[in-house]
Amino acid sequence: MIDFSRVQKELQECSKDIEASGIKVTPKSDNLSRLIGTIPGPMGTPYEGGSFQIDISLPDGYPFEPPKMQFATKVWHPNISSQSGAICLDILKDQWSPALTLKTALLSVQALLSAPQPDDPQDAVVAQQYLRDYQTFVGTARYWTETFAKTSSLGVEEKVQRLVEMGFPEGQVRSILEVVGGDENLALEKLCSG
């Protein structure tokens, strides 16, 4: 059974220093087993300036089992699937410890963005590009960050209006935009998927 009092504590800890770390964790709904994490792209990397959303599912055995995390924001990285967002990181698998928290796991994911491990890839195509043509890798990663991880300069009302004009109900549009942190592309994906 998930230790929900611990999850509550972890959420409070994350919100305490959000200004310093930029790391945010919020519930997807009333159910604390489904969360969304947000990490800023690390400085000095092709991900700088991006805001990356990560879907978090807590298994029944949490904190004795690792949280399941995958990128909701598309990212070009050797250890992250460009298709599914799956993350190849040891602490999310066999190196997990109950002493770790959601925040430390997200910090580790952020560190992975800074230090790719192409010899242990999740995405072989990206890893090959990283090893054989680093400049193209950097350009592609930067392009994906600009396209998928940067919040549009449009205000919330303009985004709502554009999505409503596509035929989606306004209430649903507003709540989904809030859940995905204002990411219009991600909101559209969620609206279309049901």
What features would you highlight for this structure?
single chain, four-stranded antiparallel sheet, alpha+beta
- Roughly how many Å apart are the termini? 29 Å
* Order of strands across the main sheet: 1-2-3-4
| pLDDT averaged over residues | 90
Oligomer: single chain
Spell the H/E element sequence: HHEEEEHHHHHH
Query: What is the makeup of the main sheet?
Result: 4 strands, antiparallel
E-strand count: 4
How many DSSP helices?
Answer: 8
Helix content: 40-55%
Q: Pick out the low-confidence regions.
A: none
Gyration radius, in Å: 17 Å
What amount of the residues lies in strands? 5-15%
Mass-distribution shape:
globular
**What is the SS-derived class?**
alpha+beta
Explained architecture:
The protein is of the alpha+beta class and about 190 residues long. Helices cover about 45% and strands about 10% of the residues. The chain is built from 8 helices and 4 strands. The chain has a 4-stranded antiparallel sheet with strand order 1-2-3-4. A hairpin with a 6-residue loop joins strand 1 (about 25) and strand 2. The longest helix is centred in the last third of the chain and has 16 residues, at about 135-150. The two termini are about 30 Å apart. The relative contact order is 0.14.
